[in-house]
Predict the structure.
Amino acid sequence: MKNAIVTGGTKGIGLAIAKMLLREGYNVMVTYAHDSAAVDSCMAELRRIGEQFEIVHADQGDKRSMAEFVKAMRQKKHIDCLVLNAGTTHREGLRGTTDSDWERVMQVNVNSAMYLVRDLYDVIPCNSRIVFMGSMMGVLPHSVSLSYGVSKAAVIALAKNLVKEFAGTGTTVNVIVPGFVETEWQKNKPEEIRRNICKKTALERFATPEEVAEAVIFCIKNAFVNGSVIEISGGYNYK
């Protein structure tokens, strides 16, 4: 059985990805950092599909936690699919961002993802799949969260550079770039802000987590999609 890791997979987009991978026959390792309240509901949803999964604590902002996670994952002998979905944000512009704010976002969104691929490299067999979760904020400038936007732009650059690292192995590296998605965080936004987002989106709605997960599965199933940045935005900024 093939092994897959989905970081930040206990809710939202990550959970939708984990469920689809279970249906595809993978043994799925789902990570979480702080939201232990989501673990029970995640477990219940995954059990409706199958029993081939684990939910593991791994805080990408904590190097010791990630070292323990890597050690456990290396015991699996092979990691055939790595979906780097976990992330964090800080909603401030330039002057409101402290050194620690900036470094925390970069550590979680960029550094830990690179370290995870590096430290698992020799247990990633040929013809595996690596998928990063980017964001339209990494494509279009956004004044509300400088650190998040820059970190997601860095994720796109990281993925493209890793294509060369895996050249000749059959392993592919791609980035999914969602726009606004109906996750827990987005649902709690003020209605006026939600309406403004829909007005700027050609399809006039938010994506579902499942629509983003389907793009991930496409990258996993299609062996010739490599180095691609796939936007799932509904035509954001086209109106």
In short: The helical segments are 12-23, 37-47, 63-74, 99-120, 146-165, 184-187, 191-199, 209-221.
